[in-house]
Specification:
There is one protein chain. With 211 residues, the protein is an alpha/beta fold. It contains six helices and seven strands. The strands form two sheets. Strands 3-2-4-6-7 form a five-stranded parallel β-sheet. A two-stranded parallel sheet has the order 1-5. The protein is elongated.
Length: 211
């Protein structure tokens, strides 16, 4: 089950996930937290987190085994939507030098439906930083699309309410017309009854006079 995100900050929180392998790619990810990259991270609003519930972007590195695939998917499902997944290194993309080995997922990037792939064995910290920037742009577009969809839904709700109001007004108009028609009919019946009563009264008076 995917976890929805109620709101998203301008900055992005990155969650590193080392699935396995030689961990060389994980070391490149760890190198991003060195002092030399601190200014670049601040400039792009990038921070690191250890919790999937606080993450915006997930860096997946290393090989993925068939035995751990379900657990990895459940872990990723804890990341609120919208999110971005990055496959870091050859192993996370297609198995790298371990491709075809028994017990490994043939194409982790395709299986997990990642958004950005970084080739390399391992890729440099600078390449990883660039990929995080690309993923952040994808998230920004996703958030904008969600906002547009929410606004469209709101507009449709207003249109439905307006249509309901128009229908109610139409029904009221029909009822008023029926009331007017009923009043006119009743008035006509009363007039006919009055004329008939006058005629009867005139006949009786005439007969009395003759007598």
């Amino acid at each position: 089950m995917m976890t929805p995100r109620d709101s998203r900050r301008g900055a992005v929180a990155v969650l590193p996930v080392a699935a396995g392998g030689c961990l060389a790619c994980a070391q490149s990810v760890d190198a991003l937290q060195a002092t030399r990259y601190a200014a670049a991270l601040r400039e792009q609003g990038i921070s690191f987190t250890r919790s999937p519930r606080h993450a915006d972007i997930v860096l997946i590195s290393g090989t993925v085994t068939t035995a751990s695939l379900d657990a990895l998917r459940r872990y990723l499902d804890a990341v609120p939507q919208p999110r971005a997944l990055i496959a870091v290194g050859d192993c996370a993309i297609d198995g790298g030098v371990f491709a075809g080995a028994q017990g490994l997922v043939d194409s982790p990037a395709e299986t997990l439906d990642v958004n950005v792939e970084i080739a390399g064995c391992p890729p440099s910290p600078t390449a990883i930083l660039t990929a995080i920037g690309e993923a952040a742009q994808l998230l920004a577009h996703a958030v904008a699309d969600e906002a547009a969809a929410a606004e469209a839904d709101s507009d449709r709700e207003v249109e439905v309410e307006d249509a309901s109001d128009e229908l109610d007004a139409s029904e009221v108009a029909d009822l008023e017309e029926e009331l007017v028609t009923s009043d006119e009919t009743a008035a006509g019946d009363e007039a006919d009854a009055s004329e008939g009563a006058d005629a009867d009264a005139g006949t009786k008076t005439k007969g009395h006079d003759e007598a």
